[in-house]
Description:
Blueprint: H1 10-20, E1 25-28, E2 31-34, H2 40-56, E3 62-66, E4 70-72, E5 78-80, E6 84-88, E7 100-101, E8 106-111, H3 116-127, E9 135-140, E10 146-151, E11 157-162, E12 168-171, E13 176-179, H4 180-183
Parallel strand pairs: 4-7, 8-9
Antiparallel strand pairs: 1-2, 1-5, 3-6, 4-5, 6-8, 9-10, 10-11, 12-13
Amino acid sequence: xxxxxxxxxxxxxxxxxxxxxxxxxxxxxxxxxxxxxxxxxxxxxxxxxxxxxxxxxxxxxxxxxxxxxxxxxxxxxxxxxxxxxxxxxxxxxxxxxxxxxxxxxxxxxxxxxxxxxxxxxxxxxxxxxxxxxxxxxxxxxxxxxxxxxxxxxxxxxxxxxxxxxxxxxxxxxxxxxxxxxxxxxxxx
Length: 188
């Protein structure tokens, strides 16, 4: 009864283990990193952000997805869980499990002191490999501060930031604006 032994690539092995795991883990070129639970402040910001984006996307072909949707790079060398993602048009999924998105347009990360360097550095470098990715939004959970990175026609990235409580998070690729005060509702 000599059966053929199954072999998996490192990313396939990660996906198999991740789908069976109780906790979330991200994958970066063979390295698996566990994700810590989020604080009340982080969850309030995420809930407000998703609510506000959802209201503004009603009449568009885009939708906002929460942090349970994984995003992967085209080379499959990274699998990450953004805090929120906007996909426009038909979502392209990795496989029939429908839990890994290949075509995000806008990715949101909520920064904490323990995740800020990772979100600004390693994760952003992997996200930039995704052809459909056009805007990266970092929302600070310790102070009122929002930074937006926008992909330029030449492939470079322009960065904008605001601390103005009366300012707006402006998402140029989809033409919507969210008041900063609404993102930070019940926080400051």
